[in-house]
Amino acid sequence: MKIGVYVCHCGTNIAATVDVKEVTEFAKNQPDVTIARDYVYMCSDPGQELIKKDISDANLDRVVVASCSPRMHEVTFRKTCEEAGLNAYCMEMANIREHCSWVHTDKEKATEKAKGLVASAIAKASLLQPFEPMRVGVTPSVLVIGGGIAGIQSAQDIADAGFQVYLVEREPSIGGHMAQLDKTFPTLDCSACVLTPKMVDVARHKNIKLITYAEVETVEGYIGNFKVAVRKKARYVDEEKCTGCGDCAKVCPVTISNEFDMDLGARKAAYVPFPQAVPLVYTLERDKCMRCGLCEVVCEAGAINFEERDEEIELEVGAIIAATGYDLFDPSLEPNYGYEYDEVITGLEFERLCNASGPTLGKIEINGKEPKEVVFISCVGSREREGITNYELRITNSNLDSQTSNLKPQTSKGNEYCSRVCCMYIAKQAHLVREHISDANATVFYTDVRAFGKGFEEFYWRVKEEGVNYIRRELTDELKVDKDENGQLRVKTVSEGVPIEKEADLVVLATGIVPKEDVCETARKLKITQSGDKFFLEAHPKLRPVDTLTNGIFIAGCCQSPKDIPDTVAQASATASRACSILCKEYVEVEPITAEVDETLCCGCGICESVCPYGAIEVVDTEEGRRARVTSVKCYGCGTCGSSCIKKAVKMHQFTDEQLIAQERAALATEEVVF
Amino acid sequence: MDEVKLIGFMCNWCCYAGADLAGVSRFHYPPNIRIIRVMCSGRVDPELILDTFLYGADGVFIGGCHLGECHYLEGNYYAEKKIEMAKRLLKAAGVEPERLRLEWVSASEGERFAEVIRVFTEEIKELGPVKCEKEELEAACIAAADYKLRILATKERELLEDGNKYGEVFTMHEMDRLLGDMVQEDYESKRILLKLKKPMSVKEIASELNLKPNVVFRRILDLKRHELIEIHEIRDNTPTYIANTREGVE
Shortest CA distance to A341 belongs to which of A349, A425, A362, A500? Predict the structure, then answer.
């Protein structure tokens, strides 16, 4: 066995805390090591050349690279080995950057630790076996979950590339939150005017199958070969027959509030969420419909079908894009904002009020009255640090009346992150107030204006110059919205240390973006990891922003983090490109981290079969008796079978018992054993 | 060197990535721990843990995904039971079970990872180096490799939730007693087995291991039935036993 060890300085990232020369010298004296070198950037071209040259000149049969995390550069160095003719799986990495130099300061101890990690990697390397990656075929189709602007863009791009797309939307119509918006910042484009043509295109696209009013139930399989079960909820309206005439809604006797209009308006139990809905097919809401049958009588197309049942649809796809969107922060969680009053609304409710197809047909009015003083409050539910709410830090100034002082400090209900869109949507809405009501005043209580995007700063100044009054307050400054004895709405807060009180006819809360209510369930179904704030976690924050840690599953839009429409669309197109890079292949390579049963040791007890979560192991009859066998493509390589096998007959490739034991012993053996 | 040595076996999908994030974010923690990557915490079995202690670790850390969030659906539930088994064996060998720690750390919890390792390292420093005889750990290690305890560690979930082949569901209390007895018995057997590298009588073993002679005798009969030991000779009407050098039949 000839092992080459390559210790990276990573500039000063490693070398500043770890004595790289000393580690290299140490490696030279380890068993089977023939070459040990250090280099300033092992992943650079000359660094990789160094390894390649040694592999061919010195006939190395195993390589150890001591540098960053294998999650960063394992692929890089495997390729290096392969190019030099060494099997890719004969390379092992020692993580002396993320797990060592970056987290320690004591150079002597960090160097000792690095030696332990390198010894451990060398011990494993000497036991590595060459493998060939498994090749699996690819189903050339994609599942897009969520029909908001992200899902629409992804679906369109993939379909344009010639692949089959299944676009699954939970609501009766695609369109998502963007369909609810009136204008978009900073260009003041009409949201519906840019969105609805895209919705129609998606529905008409020959490569897109639209599955609305449906939920993804289960996802099984792996990159290239996912099996998805979708439950299409009963609409009680035949999608093929419905012409969208709306006669059923006209006669429907059940009136309920319309969630598309943020419950500001009403709709019937037989409904389309909004006039431009796609598909333009009516839905009878199961829980609200009285089964009176009036709609059935008037429907000329004969589309009403009370016998309809939920339908289970099985899909086979090669990749999945999650574009499941977001919810808005619920301002009633923080009572100081006075959301209980009719005159206090959220930003999204304001959008519906402004919108020509909204509940007031575009007139900004509350209880039939046009507001003259409109106050916007920024950062509602955003930028709150744990334990500190906007009113926890008390103002000692007695000018603020006693009403506020009975508020008790409480733990933050909001989120620490910035929602990124609120500053600009407030600016836009303040502009719209003055566009709709020329003699109205708009005031914005803000903390910082984050106008970071293209054209944002310019737009912010335009709005300010139009006469919108921006008043700065600290996030820790108490803020309270309530009514005085005359029923007049008042906003009380502190600006630059001075208490300030403002009368208002309408208060708009810039509520932030929060993860979808069922985000954890979706994450579990898709095996997507989540960040601490519960948004979906990307595989790498810089270099793999739309990948997830599950190969073949990508994320777009606000399910990943709060973002505006252009960023969402860009991300959606990125997922399309990532998905197409899988679909255009005949096969994908899957890592051969799979279990194998040594049939000479196996006793056929079946304990492995019982613990395998994927049904990848089966006990079968052989000439020698009952033996367990692994179906490699079904095996994901968790190794639970290996740790359970009573005869130790299961070999978990690349993480064998021998390898793990050798690693642990070597890591401990750099100094005298205690005994 | 008075510093304690820790080994961490960490799931590639969560805790290992959490450790990476701690690195990227520069959250510092003490340098005592050496991290070894596994694909799932369910991969770690009691034998590996005991072997790690046997070869000089003062603490072993297992990092998995939060329950319900396992990358492989339920590997971490198995891990939980296996770590429990390993703790029982450690206790039998006279090693503080607190030296073995199982924690759920997700890929996003870099700061928490550093905190968890900081606390664990401090706790092990308090305990100091492992104080027990090598043979005690060796016996625990062999017991962990034995099929009986491997079955129990894996089947515990099933026995508690679905019941055994006769449909009898075990209560936590019953399971605890069953496991306690099994581990103690198995551990004692292995200790005796290790002693019998040279011929000894029941009485000699009992005094060396500080066990009651009748207990030793019962274990000896068991071992003999499994052909792991044989009678070496009979001295003054007292038989001495020796470990069978042939491959044992289980």
Answer: A349
What is residue A378's DSSP assignment?
Answer: E
The fold adopted by the segment(s) A132-233+310-326+518-586 is FAD/NAD(P)-binding domain (3.50.50)
Helical residues (DSSP H) of A334-383, grouped into ranges: 347-354
Q: Does B250 score more than 80 pLDDT?
A: no
Residue scoring higher pLDDT (B194 or A675): B194
CA atoms B51, B52, B55, B56: torsion sign? negative
Backbone angles phi, psi at B62, to 5 degrees: -115, 125
Return the DSSP state at A421: S
Question: Which residues 88-117 of B have a C-beta within 8 angstroms of A?
Answer: 106-109, 114
Q: Per the CB < 8 Å rule, is A644 touching B23?
A: no
Domain A591-653 has CATH 3.30.70.20: yes
Measured distance CA(B98)–CA(B119) in Å, rounded? 12
Of B43, B55, B56, which is closest to A652 when you measure between CB atoms?
Answer: B43
CA-wise closest residue to B85 among B168, B15, B176, B9: B176
21-60 in chain B: CB under 8 A from chain A: 22-24, 26-32, 34-40, 42-45, 47-48, 51-52, 55-58
CATH class for domain A328-514? alpha beta
Instruction: Say if CB A147 and CB A201 are below 8 A apart.
Output: no
Yes or no: domain A3-131+660-669 corresponds to CATH 3.30.70: no
Q: Which residues of A touch B27 (CB under 8 A)?
A: 103
CB A68 within 8 A of CB A10: yes
- pLDDT at position B246 is 60
Contact at 8 Å (CB) between B113 and B64? no
Contact with chain A for residue B150, Cβ under 8 A: yes
pLDDT recorded at residue A673: 38
Question: pLDDT at position B135, please?
Answer: 93
Which residues on chain B are in Cβ contact (under 8 Å) with A648?
A: 145
The answer on pLDDT for B247 being more than 60 is no
Determine, for residues B36 and A70 on separate chains, whether the beta-carbon distance falls below 8 Å.
no
Residues whose CB is less than 8 angstroms from the CB of residue B32 and which lie 6 or more positions away in sequence, other chains included = A113, B3, B4, B5, B6, B121, B124
Whether residue B74 and residue A613 make contact (CB cut-off 8 A), yes or no, is yes
pLDDT for A672? 43
For residue A96, list chain B residues with Cβ-Cβ distance below 8 A.
Answer: none
Q: Do B73 and A613 touch (CB under 8 A)?
A: yes
In this predicted model, what pLDDT tens digit does every residue of B94-130 receive, in sequence order?
999 999 999 999 888 889 999 999 999 999 999 999 9
Of B43, B74, B150, the CB nearest to A639: B43
pLDDT value, residue A392: 40
> Where do the structural domains in chain A lie, given as residue ranges?
3-131+660-669, 132-233+310-326+518-586, 234-308, 328-514, 591-653
Q: What whole-number distance in Å separates Cα of residue A18 and Cα of residue A21? A: 9
Amino acid letter for position A65: V
Q: Do domains A3-131+660-669 and A234-308 have the same CATH topology?
A: no
Q: A540 by DSSP, 3-state: which? A: strand
Cβ of residue B67 closer than 8 Å to a chain A Cβ:
no
- Give the pLDDT confidence score for residue A389 in this predicted structure: 45
CA distance B105 to chain A (A): 11
| Alpha-carbon span A561 to A552, nearest angstrom | 20
Model confidence at B71: pLDDT above 90: no
B185, amino acid identity: E
CB contact under 8 A, A537 and B107: yes
Point out the residues of chain A with pLDDT beneath 50. 387-410, 672-675
The CA-atom distances, in angstroms, between A414 and each of A384, A409, A456, A476 are: 6, 14, 25, 13
From the list B24, B108, B154, which residue is nearest A607 (CB)? Answer: B154
Q: In this structure, which topology does domain A234-308 adopt according to CATH?
A: Alpha-Beta Plaits (3.30.70)
- A470 strand-pairing partners: A444
